[in-house]
Structure formats: C-alpha cells, structure tokens
Amino acid sequence: MKINIKETLKRYKRVLILARKPDKKELKETARICGIGFVIMGMIGFIIYLISVFGGV
Fold this sequence. Notes:
mainly alpha; 79% helix
C-alpha cells in the first residue's frame, strides 16, 4: 500500500479551505447538544451500574 503524500496534503488543504469558524449561536447550540448527550450517557451508565449493584450480577 503506497501513501501519496502530495494527494493527502491536497485533501487536507481542501478541507481547511472549506472549514469556517462557527458563530456564537452555532457554538452555543453545539455545546448544548453535546452537554445533553453527556448527561444522557451518564444517566444510562448510572442506571446500568445500579442494575448491576442491586441486581446481583
């Protein structure tokens, strides 16, 4: 398997050109969605923990 460094750098450059800095509204919404995801995942993990502790597994 041969890696073509020139082609890889072209792809990286194209992504960086298309990338943009998010505005405040977009950043707040992304942070809120990620926070909700963390809370949900934490609750699921805690429920599984409680089931394993009280379920005798």
